[in-house]
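>> Question from a student workshop board

For tomorrow's exercise we were told to take the sequence and the ligand below, predict the bound structure, and bring the output to class. My setup keeps failing. Could a helper post the expected result so I can at least see what it should look like? The ligand is 2-acetamido-2-deoxy-beta-D-glucopyranose.
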Amino acid sequence: MTTKFFVMFLLFIWLCSTMNVAVADIGTAATYQPPYAPTKCGGNRRDQFPPGNMFIAVGEGLWDNGAACGRKYRLKCLSGSNKPCKGGTIDVKVIDFCPKCSSTIVMSNDAFSSVSNASDRIIVEYIQL
Ligand SMILES: *[C@@H]1O[C@H](CO)[C@@H](O)[C@H](O)[C@H]1NC(C)=O
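>> Workshop helper replied:
Here is what the output should look like for this input. Compare the format with yours to find the bug.
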């Protein structure tokens, strides 16, 4: 009886830790202005820009010494001043490094305006795809 319970408990813990891998992170996002090229990932290549200009540049925290190039994130606006979030998620691609960013990421004008109507920083939830 107690052994059964213990095994169930272990299974529960294991399930929780497996699912934790998919838990999203929370950070801040702002938008940045064109020109967007050259970038640290693709220089002046035109094909680095994903359809709809759904791209971002990341700060030191996510840059991963350049390994971040091409990574895709699904992100969602959580909050900001004046209820800026439009709801829904977008998928964005990392194309650049933003060494002096005070936010976790900066988004293209198109990406930023598709999730919020803010003119300043927003809080976002993101998960790597
Ligand atoms: C957009 O901005 C206005 C205020 O400037 C706000 O009232 C509105 O709720 C905002 N949010 C959305 C999703 O449009």
